[in-house]
Specification:
182 residues; alpha+beta; Alpha-Beta Plaits; five-stranded antiparallel beta sheet; two-stranded antiparallel ribbon; 5 helices; 9 strands; globular
């Protein structure tokens, strides 16, 4: 079913058709946390709670396992990360607004770009293909360089087309090949 939906969306995109209201879309949502939460506890608990919230607010299609990753930049503590596939009728800008509202509900406040955060939700990809508007680029501009997002996506949607014919599985493999050997 999942790949069938993606193929239909790709066909519509190739034919120059834009999304329609009332049409259901699949979204790949990156979930991250590296701060404890008073109610949900450690970052892994925050990610689990975020997945439950996405399930309550949208139709949860699938979710990856939670992985632990070193923080990037000045973000401090290590992150718990996962990817969820959700289905909904929202267009990308409205989906982004809803995700930012969920972040605020979890206690996220605007601050340093690379600072620690209770919850970070990003749209990695959607079944409509590419989207570009002020403040939103889909697929996520950094997806191809982020193993903490690409690996969970490839684990639950390996055939998701990210760039042309390159799928999440292809790009995760390429990124793994570039990683330094230990």
């Amino acid at each position: 079913m999942f790949l069938g939906q993606l193929r239909k969306a790709a066909l519509r995109q190739a034919q120059g058709e834009r999304c329609c209201l009332g049409q259901s879309h699949l979204y790949a949502i990156a979930i991250g946390s590296n701060r404890t939460h008073g109610r949900f506890g450690r970052p892994t608990g925050v990610v689990e709670a975020a997945i439950a919230r996405l399930d309550a607010d949208f139709d949860l299609f699938d979710a990856s396992r939670i992985i632990l990753n070193p923080a990037h930049g000045g973000a401090g503590r290590d992150f718990a990360n996962a990817v969820a596939l959700v289905e909904g009728e929202l267009e990308p800008p409205e989906m982004l607004r809803r995700l930012k509202a969920i972040e605020r509900d979890f206690g996220r406040r605007r601050g340093r770009r690379w600072g620690s955060r209770v919850l970070d939700l990003d749209i990695l990809a959607w079944s409509g293909g590419h989207w570009r508007s002020h403040g939103l680029t889909i697929p996520h501009a950094s997806l191809e360089q982020r193993t903490f997002a690409l690996d969970p996506l490839a684990s639950i949607a390996p055939g998701w087309p990210v760039r042309g014919a390159l799928t999440a599985r292809h790009l995760a493999h390429r990124l793994a090949q570039r990683a330094p050997r230990r």
